[in-house]
Design brief:
It holds the Pfam family AI-2E_transport. It comes from Roseateles toxinivorans. This is Putative PurR-regulated permease PerM. Keywords: Membrane, Transmembrane, Transmembrane helix. It is found in: Membrane. The chain has helices at about 5-55, 60-80, 80-110, 120-130, 135-150, 150-185, 190-230, 235-245, 250-270, 270-295, 305-320, 320-345, 350. By secondary structure, it is mainly α. The chain has a domain at about 30-90 and about 135-185. Helix 5 (about 135-150) crosses helix 6, helix 7 (about 190-230) runs antiparallel to helix 8 (about 235-245) and helix 7 runs antiparallel to helix 10. The radius of gyration is 26 Å and the shape is elongated. The two termini are about 30 Å apart.
């Protein structure tokens, strides 16, 4: 069977795309720090260029921005420390009381429906004392013991944590030259439409990233102030963590909601904590969905919530952590490509007959 020139070109590009995704799938365990660093370099590169334009040496600009970013990530991780140090003792005190209350009130109520259960409060209390009454030294010893058992896993985490800043630094330093080398591989006959396509992708991703950062900062302030006005002791760490974690769609908000709900139940030991969290986080979702996102992010990347969930699950299943990292950028590129294909279809003889 003889193939036309266009068919051979289409098959060639399809084969290259298949090889690319196969390599991505096979190398996904080692690509994580490089993919994350590339995404961060894409987001931080405009700031580096602005500093360079103002006379700051590129080396100093790259180091400054990377240091600020790493300090911000470290501060976000350290927000978990006061949450755990506050909630673990409360859990230790409250769990036996909750078990005793369930035995006193819940068991007789269930017995009316023929359900006969009984909680062993003594065993629950012993379990809580064993695992939640440890001090920092005991927790550290347990962590070190686990690290020795799963040494390769811990080594991989530490290696990625060290490798990612190094890769990010070199990408920030060589971003322009890397872009030029990649651009030189694009066939000259398709450079004009490719440039237009990449410009659309850059505009969409840039709008998404910059707008989402503003949304995160505003939500961090909102949740912190709202939880503080409601009387939460952990208002600042829980509020800031929730606001910044919403960058991870749905997962970040869910983690923040879980931490706030746990803090409210343990601190107030009444329905007030649950209702306060429900009202604050419900209003936060309304604020994000109907005010902040439309004004600061626009239509984001043009994907419905269900499509975003599907993209995260599908890419995560295929490529693991790397897939989660590239799910939304890849979906954005797919949206731009889909819009262009839609316009081509409307102008094609196939549509016009």
């Amino acid at each position: 069977m003889n193939l036309s020139t266009h068919q051979r070109k289409a098959l060639s590009w399809a084969a290259l795309a298949a090889l690319f995704f196969a390599a991505l799938w096979l190398l996904s365990p080692v690509l994580a720090p490089f993919i994350v660093a590339a995404l961060l370099a894409y987001a931080l590169h405009p700031a580096v260029e602005r500093l360079v334009a103002r006379g700051v040496p590129r080396l100093a600009a790259a180091l400054l921005l990377e240091t600020v970013f790493c300090l911000g990530v470290l501060a976000l991780m350290l927000l978990i420390v006061p949450i755990l140090s506050k909630e673990l003792p409360l859990l230790r005190d409250q769990i036996p009381r909750v078990a005793a209350a369930l035995n006193e009130h819940g068991v007789p109520w269930l017995a009316q429906f023929g359900i006969h259960v009984s909680l062993d409060t003594a065993s629950i209390k012993a379990f809580v004392v064993k695992y939640l009454d440890a001090n920092l030294e005991d927790w550290l010893a347990t962590a070190l013991s686990s690290a020795r058992i799963g040494g390769s896993f811990v080594l991989a985490i530490v290696g990625n944590a060290v490798l990612m800043p190094v890769v990010l630094f070199y990408l920030l330093m060589d971003w322009n030259s890397l872009r030029e080398r990649v651009w030189a591989l694009v066939p000259p006959r398709v450079r004009e439409p490719t440039a237009a396509f990449l410009a659309d992708c850059d505009a969409m991703l840039g709008q998404y990233l910059r707008g989402q950062i503003l949304v995160m900062l505003i939500l961090a302030v909102y949740y912190s102030v709202a939880l503080a006005l409601a009387g939460f002791d952990l208002a600042l760490p829980v509020g800031v963590f929730t606001g910044l974690a919403v960058f991870i769609p749905y997962v970040g908000f869910g983690l923040g909601l879980l931490l706030a709900m746990l803090a409210g139940v343990l601190q107030f030991a009444s329905l007030y904590g649950v209702l306060a969290v429900a009202v604050i986080f419900g209003l936060g979702q309304v604020l994000e969905s109907f005010v902040l996102t439309p004004r600061l992010v626009g239509e984001r990347i043009g994907l419905s919530p269900l499509t975003v969930i599907f993209a995260l699950l599908a890419f995560g299943h295929l490529f693991g952590f790397v897939g989660v990292m590239i799910a939304l950028p890849a979906s954005a590129l797919g949206v731009v490509a889909g819009m262009r294909l839609h316009r081509l279809y409307l102008n094609s003889p196939l549509f016009k007959g």
